[in-house]
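Open question from group meeting: does this chain pack into something compact, or does most of it stay loose? Before anyone orders reagents, we agreed to write out a predicted structure and look at it together. Recording both the input and the output here so the notebook holds the full record.
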Amino acid sequence: MLSNPQATPSFLAIGMLRRVHHIALHVCDMTASRHFYGNILGLRELQGDEVPETLKELFEAGEAANFVTPDGTVIDLFWKPNLTPPDPDPSREFTRAGHLAFDIAPELFDQAVELLHQNQVAIDHGPVTRPTGRGIYFYDPDGFLVEIRCDPI
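Structure tokens returned:
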């Protein structure tokens, strides 16, 4: 069969997807989650005209919050007050997403670990040291696994 150069490809070519646009998480306690992502992790919360038009109504009702990472990835939090994990033990995986990982400069890693401990954030495991760097795994207020990691020094 001859290939047709005019035919539409049946897959996305490498490089067509440019970056992660946003990550949406369901949370049962919006106040605790806003504190966690904004204060403990230090992400900037979008305010006013920065809030996407499609989310303004939910934002104004206190049912959504949006945070942005330094690289521009947006984390959307959607309030689901009746949300409960299938298992009350967050170490038992209950979602197809493994974890959300944030990169940090190696010289700031130990400070980040100390801040997690000071804020009594539930640690799953770590810090661990691997050939690829160091990491610590912990839970957000809804039991979602989060990692802070750095490249090796």
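Observations to bring back to the group:
The mean pLDDT is 88.
Residues 100 and 140 are 10 Å apart (CA to CA).
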